[in-house]
Write a structure and sequence with these properties.
Elements (H helix, E strand, L loop, with lengths): L4 H10 L14 E5 L2 E4 L4 E4 L2 H4 L8 H13 L10 H14 L4 E6 L2 H16 L3 E5 L28 E5 L14 H18 L6 E4 L15 H11 L3 E5 L26 E4 L10 E6 H4 L14 H16 L2 H19 L6 E7 L2 E6 L2 H13 L2 E2 L1 E3 L5 E4 L7 H18 L4
Parallel strand pairs: 3-13, 5-6, 5-7, 7-8, 8-9
Antiparallel strand pairs: 1-2, 2-3, 4-10, 9-10, 11-12, 12-15, 14-15
Helix pairs in contact: 3-9, 4-9, 6-7, 10-12, 11-12
The protein binds 4'-deoxy-4'-aminopyridoxal-5'-phosphate (PMP).
Length: about 425
């Protein structure tokens, strides 16, 4: 029995049953540094999943730690009713980076709340509760965001306040469109969108989509799919919301935002972000052009988003990310890692596909049981990875963006060993 076992029992007795934990013998992480974390028994792991969980740049990044400590020593939180210098500064920087004209930024404490706010804006602006979302999508599990999460296995309730229609385009490896090339796939998805719009009554408020589906298993549509959608949507005044919770801040390597692979007709109307920007501090947010952001007749939505401590973390983290060109690092090291994984994993029987963009790499397996077993086998060898996909059959790799070439190679070697053990390839 591990040191974490008594804590696991306490977790089980006081927290909700649905608060899922990875591993048969769950891990208690006690500290981290760079791309590594340590558990309560002193075991060290290379972290290939923290980037998705919230550690965007590196664990215990000294620049962020210092900024948070300094701010915590002054004032922890005031209220959105007072001026907040760091909130204004971070909003200005994000607005500039967003490419959205006349952009306004509102900070929340999580991605779910950011998407809730985006839905509030879109439904109010358009005076409609009809929303288009993607099949297999994930946008959170609050009362409204479950209503736009296409992956029903993640949905704790079906009593959504929204009327949602689900569009094809998120997943390419399975289903009726699996054999199509990029152009044929895009055309089929656009035809599906037009067909759905023909079935709606009155106006639709918005389409919300992840540029690369995260929880859905790191599946990318062909570049330009959302631009093609946008042409159809814009003709009816329907807003485009890009959920950048997993894809923002350079993670996909090639672009700073995931939507930029679909930018032919300009930026989305609304962008939501969260997770990594705080490098562990709870920051989420919404960016929208002023006309959309200011459609609400309210004096605030939340009093806690944008607290000085989280803003200090966000400012320091964003500076580090930009000054060290971590987007470029995601492109270079992510490219190498993808190549390496394609070489060692793709040929194994039981591996369906190795895919990815930047430091967002998915390894799809034939069975969810194998995926669970590979997580355990990788953990036993000192590597943490994640899992996702509609059936839980995709291994998800999203390391901190500062991953080195040596660490990428080490992780690929461990993962290959774990895969070979589970898939009986030796
Ligand atoms: N959107 C996407 C694309 C996500 O992956 C997630 C979290 N996995 C969320 C929204 C919800 O974010 P949070 O967990 O911060 O509420």
């Amino acid at each position: 029995m591990s040191d974490a076992a008594p804590l696991h029992r306490r977790h089980r007795s006081v927290l909700p049953d649905w608060l899922a934990l990875y591993y048969a013998d769950p891990i208690e992480l006690t500290h981290g540094e760079g791309r590594h974390v340590w558990d309560s028994e002193g075991r060290r792991y290379l972290d290939f999943f923290g980037g998705i969980l919230t550690t965007m740049t590196a664990h215990a990044l000294p620049e962020v730690t210092k900024a948070v400590a300094e701010q915590a020593g002054r004032i922890l939180h005031t209220s959105t009713l007072y001026l907040n210098r760091s909130m204004v500064e971070l909003a200005e920087r994000i607005a500039r980076l967003s490419h959205i004209p006349d952009a306004r930024v509102f900070f929340t404490t999580s991605g779910t709340e950011a998407n809730d706010t985006a839905l509030l804006l879109a439904t109010t602006y358009r005076r409609s509760n009809q929303i288009l979302a993607m099949r297999n999508s994930y946008h959170g599990r609050s009362f409204s965001t479950v209503g736009i999460t296409g992956n029903r296995s993640w949905s704790p309730t079906s009593l959504s306040p929204l009327q949602t229609l689900y569009v094809h385009g998120g997943v390419r490896t399975k289903g009726p469109f699996a054999q199509l090339d990029d152009q044929e796939f895009t055309d089929a998805c656009v035809a599906d969108l037009r067909d759905l719009l023909g079935q709606t009554r009155g106006q639709v408020a918005a389409l919300i989509a992840e540029p690369v589906q995260g929880v859905g298993g790191f599946t990318s549509p062909p570049d330009g799919l959302y631009a093609a959608f946008r042409e159809v949507l814009a003709a009816e005044g329907i807003l485009w919301i890009a959920d950048e919770v997993q894809t923002g801040w350079g993670r996909t390597g090639e672009h700073f935002w995931g939507w930029q692979a679909h930018a032919q007709h300009g930026p989305p109307d609304i962008v939501t972000f969260a997770k990594g920007i705080g490098n562990g501090a709870s920051i989420g947010g919404v960016i929208a052009r002023a006309e959309v952001m200011n459609c609400l007749d309210a004096n605030s939505i939340s009093t806690f988003g944008g607290s000085p401590v989280t803003m200090a973390a966000g400012l320091a983290n964003l500076s580090y990310l930009l000054e060290n060109d971590l987007q470029g690092n995601a492109r270079r090291v992510g490219g190498l890692l993808l190549e390496r994984l394609r070489a060692v994993a793709a040929p194994l029987a039981g591996v369906v596909e190795v895919r990815g963009r930047g430091l967002m790499i998915g390894v799809e397996l034939e069975s969810p049981q194998a995926a669970t077993a590979v997580l355990e086998a990788a953990r036993a060898r000192g590597l943490l990875i994640g899992k996702g996909g509609l059936r839980g059959d995709v291994l998800r790799i999203a390391p901190p963006l500062s991953l080195s070439v040596t660490e990428a190679e080490e992780g690929a070697t461990i993962l290959a060993e774990a895969l070979r053990e589970v898939l009986n390839c030796d």
